[in-house]
Amino acid sequence: MAYPLSSDPAQACYLPLIDLTGLLSSDSQQRNAVAGQIGQACREWGFFYIYNHGIDARLQAAVFEQTRQLFDLPDEAKRALDKATSPANRGYEALRGQCLEPGAPADLKEGFYLGRDLPADDPRVQAGRFNHGPNQWPASLPGFRPAMERYHAAMTDLTERLMAGLALSLELPETYFAGFCHQAMATLRLLHYPPQPAMAAPGEKGCGAHTDFGGLTLLLQDENPGLQVWNHHAQDWVDAPPLPGTYVVNLGDMIARWTNDRYRSTLHRVVNLSGHERYSVPFFFGGNPDHLVSCIPTCLEPGEAPRYPSVTVEAHYREMYRRTYA
Ligand SMILES: O=C(O)CCC(=O)C(=O)O
Ligand SMILES: [Fe+2]
């Protein structure tokens, strides 16, 4: 088998597991204590689990229920929502629609993108700003839109708290990333992975090895494992299995740029060896499109040069979409 899952049970909790209770508290000492754990996880892994995050389990269940129903729709209904017809990158993408790992076969996943719903007469939509516009809603699923909109709003709040924790962990004011968070692009991505085929082509898998493009990603997984994270210590993949009640949080490339790689944007991939259909829902927090991402001065030693030029969020995203949807 090309991608054996680890048989080491200790790996189930290989990645740091952080209780978020203190970060959501009004006591700054408690927030600082959690920020310390976040900082360590960001330096060592760029990946960690969170629990006690405050997102309602019933809302999560509703999101999964609607996700399954969406992907169960006939092909024709899904293709009517094709994201290629949306200037704002919203809607359906078919199996093998993206190739996240250069040189590997296209990804064995189908997906659906949605974000904040902006009307066609919003100035940002009229100006053709990246990722700004109306969603495409499946007309035959009346429960879809309300569940997704509630979930998107709740995840935006939670991620803003995490960004404040991230600032604290870098010994910056909690509001340091407020400009980045203001009217942020935030994308909910619904994913469906069929079981890994027995006769897969070499390198073919659910989702090719990649780093995430944006700020923070919060991943909701169903009960089927498949996510693997690159362990730079051991130079090998470790499993990031679903743990009930948690999110897997990982840092995207913008945070590596901000911190001159002190905080890691770590490679990960999906190989669905579970034998079941796997559904997952990553929430990508991309930030304000006009925000300039430049190396944070306190992340440089005297004489150290920034490894990345400054870039706006929008320019960075356009380039990453161009590369992976060639
Ligand atoms: O489905 C997963 O577990 C991970 C998906 C992912 O890494 C992505 O969409 O960027
Ligand atoms: Fe990812």
Structure explained in plain terms:
- The chain has a single domain, classed as Jelly Rolls (Sandwich), CATH 2.60.120.330.
- It is 28% helix and 20% strand.
- It has 8 helices and 14 strands.
- The strands form 3 sheets. An 8-stranded mixed β-sheet has the order 1-2-10-7-12-5-4-3. A 4-stranded antiparallel β-sheet has the order 6-11-8-9, with no helix packed on it.
- Helix 1 (28-44) packs across helix 5 and helix 2 (57-72) packs across helix 5 (144-169).
- Residues 1-12 have low confidence and may be disordered.
Mean pLDDT: 93
* Number of helical segments with 4 or more residues: 8
- Class by helix and strand content? alpha+beta
- Provide the CATH topology: Jelly Rolls
What is the overall silhouette?
globular
Q: How many domains comprise the coordinates?
A: 1
Order of helices and strands: EHEHHEEHHHEEEEEEHEEEEH
Helix share of residues? Answer: 25-40%
Largest sheet: 8 strands, mixed
EC number: 1.13.12.19, 1.14.20.7
Domain Fe2OG dioxygenase: 183-287
GO biological process, one term: ethylene biosynthetic process
Pathway: Alkene biosynthesis; ethylene biosynthesis via 2-oxoglutarate
Characteristic key phrases:
326 residues, 8 helices, oxidoreductase, binds 2-oxoglutaric acid, binds fe (ii) ion, four-stranded antiparallel β-sheet, IPNS-like_FE2OG_OXY, eight-stranded mixed β-sheet, 14 strands, Jelly Rolls, alpha+beta, EC 1.14.20.7, disordered N terminus, iron, DIOX_N
